[in-house]
Design brief:
12% of the residues are buried. 12% of the residues lie in helices and 53% in strands. With 131 residues, the chain is mostly beta strands. The protein has 1 helix and 10 strands, in the order αββββββββββ. The strands form 2 sheets. Strands 4, 5, 6, 8, 9 and 10 form a 6-stranded mixed beta sheet that branches. Strands 1-2-3-7 form a 4-stranded antiparallel beta sheet, with no helix packed on it.
């Protein structure tokens, strides 16, 4: 099999493109909660990773959107983030970073809220430790 110089350059470009697409944040922990969404039960997946004093969180929520313009999803809303039992912030996206948490162990809870203010689901808490 012969590989021409131009094919080699194309292969190098493809390898660089793939290498650049590798996620910077690899999530080390995740959990699933089942939520009744419509007539079927789908799991909600939450991935999280601690890096320094920051916690990276990613949620996959079936039949739910944060984009008010997306009418294909059944529900629209936001996530209320609680740290150690106190409301920390409301986010309008599935992936977010909790910055500069103080040193120590923390319990994080995510409440998925509908636009009308009602709770869509309260997810299981997860624990992180900032060293």
């Amino acid at each position: 099999m012969r590989i021409s110089l131009s094919s080699g350059k194309q292969l190098l470009i493809i390898l660089l493109m793939v290498a650049c697409c590798v996620p910077v944040v690899g999530f080390s922990e995740s959990f699933q909660s089942n939520v009744e969404a419509g007539e079927k039960t789908d799991p909600v997946v939450v991935n999280h990773r601690t890096k320094g004093a920051d916690v990276f969180v990613e949620c996959v929520i079936p039949n739910f959107t944060f984009d008010k313009q997306n009418e294909t999803q059944e529900y629209y809303g936001s996530i209320d983030v609680y740290i150690d039992g106190k409301k920390h912030q409301t986010v309008q996206q599935a992936a977010f970073i909790l910055h500069n948490l103080p040193e120590g162990k923390h319990t994080i809870r995510l409440d998925i809220m509908r636009e009308d203010g009602g709770r869509y689901i309260s997810l299981n808490e997860f624990k992180v430790e900032i060293k």
